[in-house]
Amino acid sequence: MAIKTFPENLSQNKGLPIRMVTPEFGRISAESAAQYGSAQRLPYYFFLFVWQGSSSEVIDGETMEGGENELLFALPHQVRQLASGGHGADYYKLGFDNECLARLPKKFPFLLNPLNRQKISFLPDAALRLWNTFKILKELLHTVDSNPELILAYLNSLLTEINTAYFVLHKKPVAGRLDKFLGFKLFVEDNLTDQPAITEIAEKLALSTDGLYRIVKQHSGVSPKEFITDRLIIEARRRMYNEPNTSVKELAFELGFNDPGYFSRLFKKVTGKTIAAFYQDLSL
Questions:
Q1: N or C, where is the chain less crowded by C-beta within 10 Å?
Q2: 130 and 71 in contact (C-beta within 8 Å)?
Q3: Is pLDDT larger for residue 185 or for residue 157?
Q4: How far apart are CA 194 and CA 122, in angstroms?
Q5: What is the SS3 assignment for the chain?
Q6: Model pLDDT, residue 282
Q7: Are 192 and 227 in contact (CB under 8 A)?
Q8: pLDDT of 125-162, one tens digit each?
Q9: What is the pLDDT of residues 67-120, one digit of tens each?
Q10: Is pLDDT larger for residue 68 or for residue 168?
Q11: How far apart are CA 124 and CA 118, in angstroms?
């Protein structure tokens, strides 16, 4: 399903698709917020850094809680529900799309979420550096004609700090193994609704099926088949948020299932709910 890129009217810079929100800066009106509905399939990367207090975000139907010195992030195509409550006393929200990333000098593996966690805790010194970088970015975004290269320089610093913290508590994997896992995730994302065979993916990555199993199990905690199944169910839930009138049969075929009955049983097995019950929850 195609989604819109970063909304042009939300950008705070003439040359970049980027926006920041803090308790005193960047908030949009209730009328503007209403245009996006109670849930939005994100067309950009979203970050929430909590400096003081606590906050929460509902991403793909799951509530993530963040406290002081913690950062929550969501990726393009994930469904974010608008928060019903308030945020902490001091926080930064940041959104930007792939156009910004393409102009940065390096890649950031954490944006593929290889460890399957979207909350990062920072030690005090790192949290202070992060807070200062967010603060400078906010100052630059106060003026729509700020030099985009300056903004990109600080965005690069911000993402470098986050990328380091994302992996710091994880046993450093052999570089080749992490690369293979990222390759697996990318292949799954690019071919999800084709439901590629495990043997096909292993061949593409120049691995044996046993080798692929070990790498995916190490980084995700599940087998390649379970990983693909979980990803398909997440995609189903996202599409149900966006198109609540889609029939089970249509949804099953869109996701590459030839048997809607099997898809329904699989959905209940993974989520613990029938599709009908999930739709009913959306209407509440």
A1: C
A2: yes
A3: 157
A4: 39
A5: CCCCCCCHHHCCCCCCCEEEEECCECCCCHHHHHCCCCEEECCCEEEEEEEECCEEEEECCEEEEECCCEEEEECCCCEEECCCCCCCCEEEEEEECHHHHHCCCCCCHHHHCCCCCCEEECCHHHHHHHHHHHHHHHHHHCCCCCCHHHHHHHHHHHHHHHHHHHHHCCCCCCHHHHHHHHHHHHHHHHCHHHCCCHHHHHHHCCCCHHHHHHHHHHHHCCCHHHHHHHHHHHHHHHHHHHCCCCCHHHHHHHCCCCCHHHHHHHHHHHHCCCHHHHHHHHCC
A6: 67
A7: no
A8: 999 999 999 999 999 999 999 999 999 999 999 999 99
A9: 999 999 999 888 888 765 556 678 999 999 988 998 998 888 889 888 788 999
A10: 68
A11: 19
Rounded Cα distance between 219 and 171, Å, is 10
Q: What is the pTM of this model?
A: 0.72
CA neighbor of 18 nearest in space, from 132, 107, 148? 148
Distance of alpha carbon 183 from the chain centroid: 17
Closest CA to 92 of 60, 125, 139, 124: 139
Q: Give the separation between CA 72 and CA 49, rounded to whole angstroms.
A: 7
Contact, 192 vs 231, CB < 8 A? yes
Tokens representing 62 are 């799951």
- Paired with 47 in beta bridges are 73, 94
Sheet of strand 70-74, all strands in order from the earlier edge strand to the far edge: 18-21, 90-96, 45-52, 70-74, 119-121
Q: Which pair of structure tokens corresponds to residue 31? A: 């009328």
